[in-house]
Each structure stands twice: as structure tokens, then as C-alpha cells.
Design brief:
The structure is a single chain. By secondary structure, this protein is of the alpha+beta class. 16% of the residues lie in helices and 35% in strands. A hairpin with a 5-residue loop joins strand 5 and strand 6. The protein is elongated and about 60 Å long.
Amino acid sequence: MKKTELTCIGCPMGCAVTVEMDGAGEITGVTGHTCKRGEDYARKEVTDPTRIVTSTVKVEGGTLEMVSVKTKADIPKDKMAECVDSLRGVCVKAPVHIGDVIAADIAGTGVDIVATKEVPAFV
């Protein structure tokens, strides 16, 4: 039997959660959580971990040189580095609006990168 210790990030409580798995990789128990989100988080984290990725990209002709961006949904954890690498050469033209798609289908995940800040065009 394998035990995995996690700190839950599903809510502000930060519970110490333990996930027990049998030899076949099946979850046999989850303990230490104080809410349903904790159990859901722990089960997903040990079987299919995902993350939201945040970063910045360059802006051309804007009042700011960079705009903050994030994945529109979580992506597989093992695709994070590829996602960030894909953003290295990206430059968008101002104006940029919150929710604008900056890069579609990042790293082949089916998830778009969207702007999280307004950047007006330089006048």
C-alpha cells in the first residue's frame, strides 16, 4: 500500500490530506480533509494533476510593456513547462482587453491563454 501526503489547496483551510493507494494504483482511502473539496482535490492530484498557469507576454504599442495572462482552464501538470516555453516569443498589439485570447490551444491542451489585464494603446 502506498500513502501520499498532500496539503489541500481546495480552500483556505490547507488540510493535511493522506491518500492511500493499493498496488494497482487504485485509491483505497482519503483522510484528513474537512470538506468535500479536499477529498476531490486529493483524488485528482494523485491520479491526474492539473494546474492553472499564469505568466506575462509582451505588448507592442501599449501603455504597458507587458500584459498578465493565464490559462482559461487548468492544464495537465506535465504540460506546464511547454506552455510557458510557448509564450516566450509571443507579442500582442495593444489594445488588449481582459479575456482576449492571446494564444489558442496552448501546448496542444485545447486550452487558450487569455489576458487578465487591460492594456490601452499608447496614444
